[in-house]
Amino acid sequence: MTETFVPPTRFAVPGRIAVSNRAAAVWQTATLTEIRRETPHAATFRFAVPGWQGHLPGQHLMLRLTAEDGYGAQRHYSIASPPEDAGHIELTLDHVEGGEVSGWFHTVAEPGDEVQVRGPLSGFFAWPGDRPALLIGAGSGVVPLMSMVRHHRAQGSTVPLRLLVSARSPQELIYAREYGDETTPVFTRDAAAGVPVGRMSAAHVAPLLDRAPPGGWEAYVCGSNGFAEHASRLLVEAGQPVHRIRIERFG
Amino acid sequence: MNVTRGFTGRPRVHHPGLPPGQYDAGDDWPVLSAEVTPDLAAADWSFRIDGLVAEPRTWSWDAAHALAPSAYEGDIHCVTSWSKFGVRFGGVSLDAFLGLVRPDATATHAVAYSHTGYTTNLPLTDLTGGRAWIAWEYDGRPLPAEHGGPARLLVPHLYFWKSAKWIAGLRILDHDEPGFWEQNGYHARGNPWEEQRYSGD
Ligand SMILES: Cc1cc2nc3c(=O)[nH]c(=O)nc-3n(C[C@H](O)[C@H](O)[C@H](O)COP(=O)(O)OP(=O)(O)OC[C@H]3O[C@@H](n4cnc5c(N)ncnc54)[C@H](O)[C@@H]3O)c2cc1C
Q1: What are phi and psi of A66, to 5 degrees?
Q2: What ipTM was estimated for this complex?
Q3: pLDDT tens digits, residue range B134-177?
Q4: pTM (2 d.p.)
Q5: Where is the Oxidoreductase molybdopterin-binding domain (chain B) (predicted)?
Q6: Which residue, of A148, A213, A219, B51, has the fewest CB within 10 Å?
Q7: Residue A136: its chain B contacts at CB < 8 A?
């Protein structure tokens, strides 16, 4: 074999865990057991999935709805619940205007309804809880990050964990009641009197990097593509190594 | 079949170009990549083919542009279930590059790798015969960075994660070697018409 050449690369973050091929290939029935409103535009859907083999915080699944005529619509959704919630999974869906799948969830779905899921998928965005994690999300991008926060709490972990979450307003902030000291919300349009309003900026990110734990952060960024581009640039400018930034884009 | 109560789906016209489980994204072109979009100037871009070839080679931006141009007009399909119809890419057919390095008779597969370190594996037969390109134009304009510009691999008959963005090279092998998503549970080949999404499909 002739000599090979590999360019110097900065990304090349390996997946955090091996994904079970069998679980990823099998469709399972998930039964809706509860719907909880989070914000005017987002709700959490809790499912019983008896055969669920477990997941790591940050992973997502594929969900399928099937019409009478056999037409199927499949979408990816991040898992909001922590692995400790065995036999159950929770998803939090934004109601997308005119959305085929989120529209069904927000206008038709009731406890007792069944949908098909397969997964968990992708070990890349997963956080097993082992390394200090800096989590940055916007809108429904906070969903996989919340699974990490919940896992961290359920384990009583002392591994450093920080969450920066961006929302339009306090009313639009998903999981608002659940955040603790680990979280800094950023409001882009409206906030309570005295709370600054504006885009996430270097002023939010730089202090977290200045006070990084020994060995630095593993950064997880999740949200729309526009937000992911913005937040990942802020991280790089603040000195976070490119190869320690994992990004989940919701499209 | 597990019919979902009350789910009808959007009114739809059957499009013969739509593989199973896919929907038409229309004008949208979602961006899906796990890494930070690199700042890669055309002048700093290069493309290399090595491994089981008679003559390994590296092309600069200008050297690659000196090859005969070749365009793709057709559809693309992403594993996250959107498809896009009638898109136009401009670049050079991979056959032009491979013809110059001459893969060995024993060569069967390639690993495509990007300037960010991303990798994906492909059977050589999916890269030859006018079915794969190095693309630097989209709709007559330079390919945007978030979609893989200055140049990406384009293998439109497979799910789009195979069309490595910010393409840096191909390593020609005599065996299959899973790439980044393939190690993360995705299918080794990724044929949308057979719904080869995840390993085990
Ligand atoms: C890894 C991953 C994880 C994700 N996790 C989450 C999550 O945790 N929570 C969440 O809320 N989302 C998540 N998403 C996004 C999710 O997968 C869906 O894209 C989202 O729910 C919208 O799907 P939908 O079927 O409701 O909308 P779609 O029907 O796909 O519509 C999307 C947009 O396109 C328009 N549109 C498309 N086709 C037509 C048409 N024919 N006619 C009219 N309008 C059309 C719609 O009006 C709408 O504005 C995730 C995505 C990825 C890739």
Answers
A1: -125, 130
A2: 0.85
A3: 999 999 999 999 999 999 999 999 999 999 999 999 999 999 99
A4: 0.90
A5: 37-181
A6: A213
A7: none
Instruction: Indicate the average pLDDT of chain B.
Output: 94
Residue A60 belongs to domain spanning: 10-121
Structure tokens at A68: 């009478």
Last residue of a domain, one of A121, A148, A182: A121
Determine, yes or no, domain membership for A5. no
CATH of the domain at A85: 2.40.30.10
**Residue A173's CATH number:** 3.40.50.80
Tell me, using a 6 A CB cutoff, whether residue A153 lines ligand 1.
no
Q: End-to-end alpha-carbon separation of chain B, Å?
A: 18
Give yes or no for residue B8 having a pLDDT over 60.
Answer: yes
A2 inside domain:
no
Touching check for B13 and chain A: CB below 8 Å?
Answer: no
**Taking CB atoms and an 8 Å limit, are B198 and A118 in contact across chains?**
yes
Per-residue model confidence as pLDDT tens digits over B63-109: 999 999 999 999 999 998 899 999 999 999 999 999 999 999 999 99
Give the list of residues 6+ apart from residue A193 with CB closer than 8 angstroms, or none.
Answer: none
Of all protein residues, the one whose alpha carbon is nearest to atom 52 of ligand 1 is: A250
Chain A residue numbers with beta carbons less than 8 Å from the beta carbon of B192 are: none
Q: In the structure encoding, which two tokens stand for residue B199, read together?
A: 């390993």
Mean pLDDT score across all residues of chain A: 92
* SS3 state at B82: strand
Pair B65, A17: CB distance under 8 Å: no
